[in-house]
């Protein structure tokens, strides 16, 4: 599907990370999510290369960066930078490459590329070949030209639409001032005020039809519900429908949804973010209602609850009734969750304009749907990465807000806000998935000691010798050793890098996502019977 149906605009690893099915055992009728690679130029690319468009080009046999750059008349360095490639790095056929362009692409002469000396077999192996070698090459050129031409048209239309919409950009919330220190993250932060009440028929409205300052852009494709519809859906906010806190389960026209009640002003930043992005691993906002000064947000329903409930409820339930056996997330499910979260963060950091930092990633803000697909939620603290951030100047804040155990040291000490803040929190979440323990071990003190922090514990695991034994002790006992120790080591090592005290030593989410895809692919092929055979050799390699 990746190479033939979608012509390399996605990868097998990306599709595996987005779908819970076995990659080699798909059933007819299943719905498969296909992530396609596209992006918009960053401010740095605009300043350095004057790029106004990013074109997705499909690599064919014989292509290299020099040839692609010459084809579009751009600098080689701009292509390397856009794809995070090294000058000597190999690019493979049937993979997409982003090409920064200063103007709309038109009249690209694909036939000017040097002819390919390698024979290309036809995808339709059973169909007869007519016309010999010459017609075969002509078919390749025509196919590539038509395919890329259609792609160029789609991209141009998309970019024109994008830049027109961007002119209606809403103002960005900037939190400043306040006493420095770690605070518990609020359910909502300071937002622009709205009228005390608002109501309308349940319908999808145009942004110009509602006069709400700073909120016009967000509601363009959202459903506006009547309050009585919200009441009916939640059974008048019956406790039986309560999911957690002020979040209730509701039913709208036969479809389940989650209704979140917010007292007072509308969190227009969270709504704007969720309405502008579309990713299968980010919770979808479908509508809202404003009634008597309160706001009711309607989200897609995650049937399996939050990740922290799956990881930590065993400890609570076991103390109440030792005879009750609670379901446990398997090794493959945990790696899949990590992949999904990494894909979502990589999307926020690299594939939307402007990019966003979540700032509040933790296991309780990761939901699971019926297929155990992970979805990030709670964007109340999210902020954009401004142009000065991309140019290398750190954005600092005096208002440090978040959850203890997930906050990066540079954020606590200096208020530095970068994408590496999300990378650190992601590393902690992975450690929770590995160990089945919360980010902070419960203790009698307010914040506990350093030894109570999960990211401190993993550093001790990798110190000195006997790493295998220490890692085995660190792993969640609920897995009952039903996990590949070598892959657990690789995942723990990745998490260890993510929580490095030096922010510059942490990997980007793009690097994390690529590494996780490989770990997940190997996990799908793993058989518990293989573990015994690998234990001896792995133990020897880690102790030397």
Describe the structure.
- The chain crosses the membrane at residues 140-164.
- One of its GO terms (cellular component) is plasma membrane.
- Keywords: ATP-binding, Cell membrane, Disulfide bond, Membrane, Nucleotide-binding, Signal, Transmembrane, Transmembrane helix.
- GO terms for molecular function: ATP binding; protein kinase activity.
- It is found in: Cell membrane.
- The strands form 5 sheets. A 7-stranded mixed sheet has the order 3-4-8-9-7-6-5, with helices on both faces. The chain has a two-stranded antiparallel ribbon with strand order 1-2.
- α9 packs antiparallel against α12 and α9 (331-350) packs antiparallel against α16 (509-525).
- It is globular, with a radius of gyration of 25 Å.
- The protein is of the alpha+beta class.
- It folds into 3 domains: 37-112 and 133-166, LysM domain (Membrane-bound Lytic Murein Transglycosylase D, Chain A, Roll); 203-300, 2-Layer Sandwich (Phosphorylase Kinase, domain 1), CATH 3.30.200.20; 331-543, Transferase(Phosphotransferase) domain 1 (Transferase(Phosphotransferase), domain 1, Orthogonal Bundle).
- The protein has helices at 12-18, 43-49, 65-72, 76-82, 132-166, 227-233, 268-276, 307-320, 331-350, 387-390, 409-414, 419-435, 454-461, 467-474, 485-498, 509-525, 528-543, and strands spanning 53-58, 96-101, 203-204, 223-224, 242-244, 247-252, 255-262, 285-291, 294-300, 356-357, 366-368, 374-376, 383-384, 395-396, 416-417.
- β5 and β6 (247-252) form a beta hairpin.
């Amino acid at each position: 599907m990746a190479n033939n149906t979608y012509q390399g605009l996605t990868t097998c690893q990306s599709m595996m990370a987005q779908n819970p099915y076995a990659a080699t055992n798909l059933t007819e009728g299943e719905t498969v999510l296909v992530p396609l690679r596209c992006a918009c130029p960053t401010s740095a690319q605009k300043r350095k290369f004057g790029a106004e468009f990013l074109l997705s080009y499909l690599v064919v046999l014989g292509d290299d960066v020099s040839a692609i750059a010459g084809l579009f008349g751009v600098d080689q360095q701009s292509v390397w930078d856009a794809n995070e490639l090294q000058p000597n790095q190999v690019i493979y056929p049937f993979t997409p490459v982003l090409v920064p362009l200063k103007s709309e692409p038109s009249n690209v002469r694909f036939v000017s590329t040097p002819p390919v000396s390698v024979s290309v077999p036809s995808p339709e192996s059973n169909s007869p070949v007519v016309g010999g070698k010459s017609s075969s090459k002509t078919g390749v050129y025509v196919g590539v030209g038509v395919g890329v031409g259609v792609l160029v048209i789609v991209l141009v239309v998309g970019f024109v639409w994008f830049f027109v919409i961007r002119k209606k950009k809403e103002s960005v919330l900037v939190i400043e001032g306040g006493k420095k220190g770690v605070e518990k993250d609020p359910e909502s932060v300071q937002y622009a005020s709205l009228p005390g009440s608002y109501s309308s028929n349940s319908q999808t409205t145009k942004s110009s039809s509602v006069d709400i300052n700073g909120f016009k852009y967000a509601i363009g494709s959202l459903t506006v519900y009547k309050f009585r519809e919200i009441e009916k859906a939640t059974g008048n906010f019956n406790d039986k429908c309560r999911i957690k806190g002020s979040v209730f389960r509701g039913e709208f026209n036969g479809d389940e949804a989650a209704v979140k009640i917010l007292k007072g002003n509308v969190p227009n930043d969270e709504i704007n973010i969720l309405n502008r992005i579309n990713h299968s691993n980010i919770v979808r906002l479908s509508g809202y209602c404003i009634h008597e000064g309160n706001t009711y947000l309607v989200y897609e329903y995650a049937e399996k609850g939050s990740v922290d409930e799956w990881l930590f409820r065993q400890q609570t339930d076991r103390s109440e009734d030792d005879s009750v056996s609670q379901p446990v997330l398997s090794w493959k499910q945990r790696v899949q969750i990590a992949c999904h979260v990494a894909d979502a963060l990589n999307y926020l950091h690299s594939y939307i304009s402007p990019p966003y930092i979540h700032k509040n990633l933790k296991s309780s803000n990761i939901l699971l749907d019926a297929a155990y697909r992970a979805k990030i939620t709670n964007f109340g603290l999210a902020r954009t990465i401004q142009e000065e951030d991309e140019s290398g100047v750190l954005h600092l804040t005096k208002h440090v807000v978040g959850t203890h155990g997930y906050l990066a040291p540079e954020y606590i000490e200096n208020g530095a806000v970068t994408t590496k803040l999300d990378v650190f929190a992601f590393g902690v979440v992975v450690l929770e998935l590995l160990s089945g323990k919360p980010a902070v071990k419960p203790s009698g003190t307010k914040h506990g000691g350093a030894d109570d922090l999960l990211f401190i514990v993993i550093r001790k695991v990798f110190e000195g010798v006997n790493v295998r034994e220490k890692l085995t002790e660190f792993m969640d006992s609920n897995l009952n050793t039903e996990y590949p120790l070598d892959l657990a080591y690789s995942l723990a090592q990745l998490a260890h890098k993510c929580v490095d005290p030096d922010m510059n030593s942490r990997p980007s989410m793009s690097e994390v996502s690529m590494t996780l895809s490989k770990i997940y692919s190997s996990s799908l092929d793993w058989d518990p019977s293989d573990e015994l055979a690998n234990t001896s050799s792995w133990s020897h390699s880690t102790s030397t």
